[in-house]
Specification:
Belongs to the BPG-independent phosphoglycerate mutase family. A-PGAM subfamily. By secondary structure, the chain is α/β, with parallel strands linked by helices. It has 15 helices and 16 strands. It folds into two domains: 6-77 and 243-419, Alkaline Phosphatase, subunit A; 85-239, no CATH class. The longest helix has 22 residues, at 193-214. It binds zinc ion.
Amino acid sequence: MLTTQKGVMIILDGLGDRGIPAFGGKTPLEAADTPNMDGLASAGQCGLVDPLFPGMPVGTHTGICLLFGLSKQHTMKLARGPIEASGVGLNDNDQALYFRCNFATLKKHKDRYDILDRRAGRINTGTESLTAAIGQVDLGDGIIASLHPATQHRVVLQMEGCGLSHDISNTDPGNQFKAKGLLTCLPNDPSDSAAVKTASAVNRLMEIIYEKLSEHPVNRQRIDNNLPPANGIICRGPGTLPKVKPLLNQLKLTTAVISGERTVLGLGRLLGYDLFTHDRFTADHNTDLHAKVKTTISALDDHDMVYLHIKATDIYSHDLNPTGKREMLLKIDDAIAPLINDSLVIAITADHCTDTNTGRHTGDPIPSLIYNPRGRVDGCLEFSELACNTGGLGRINSSGFLLSMLDQMNQLENFRPKDSVFIL
Ligand SMILES: [Zn+2]
């Protein structure tokens, strides 16, 4: 009988990079001395991974969805709202429409709202009291809305009612177009009656929230303390909870996700994976890497596949801090040592690349490796963008990378591509 192996996929968020002038044109990974990752590369296979298509930058949710085993088609349809909702535990109402929102600081004029701060000063206390003050809002037409606090200024809007549509525009203009103020929610197709009804309910709600929150004690206190009040919300990414079955569930693998990041945890919960998180997993520079690796090892006792997600690499890129990213890679390299043994398949990859020169996600392919103690060796001697160019995995997409890893684990015996919703 075929012996299966367990696997750990280490996702280093925003890992791949571009040349940094201060590093003589090397990327942070190329400039970092990472003996453990180099050892895995030397004893395994390397390659370059495109999340969706070569050259197309993607967001974290897209990159993670693909690595978590969703097809491209399902990944591209998945809205941010339901991911965020799942991240705060709202994952059992598949009729409701969910939006990903921010508390924001608004100022009302006659016929418009200026956005003074898109994140209400990154408010991190009092948001439960603000959402409780909103309660259940009856918007007419049988539509009921409620707000649910997430991390800091993030908040989830839930709308319930018959005949709601996700096919509407955002009220958040985005940072770049902040000067436009709060946008009016519009149906994407003016002849779509469900979208017209939903958009007009969203617009009513924006006004009600502003009225209710402007005089709230939390906001009066914030104004007294020279902090921007959280007197409104801006929303985007509406959608319903998806009915999808990722590849790992089709294969009946038990799967765990170790992360401190709410989008990643939300996705894991949506897909039915077991979540392991802790206050010390901060999704930031100060995350406890050793505790995460310890949790990974214990999760392997009763899971076939464990995803270990580390956010800090991406945060350093967005902060335009290449030295921080390189130092973080040294710490990660040191922390993963206890994972390496002669029976575990280990993959290292990322959801996307992030350029630390600009802080922007890029469409560059992701340096990636798969180490199988009983697998092939391709002659790559280190783990870096440059070395991965010549690796035996070649240049593949994220779905192909996941399949390659599962194949190394001997877990694809029952995989039938024809019957599967997992389409490459
Ligand atoms: Zn990311």
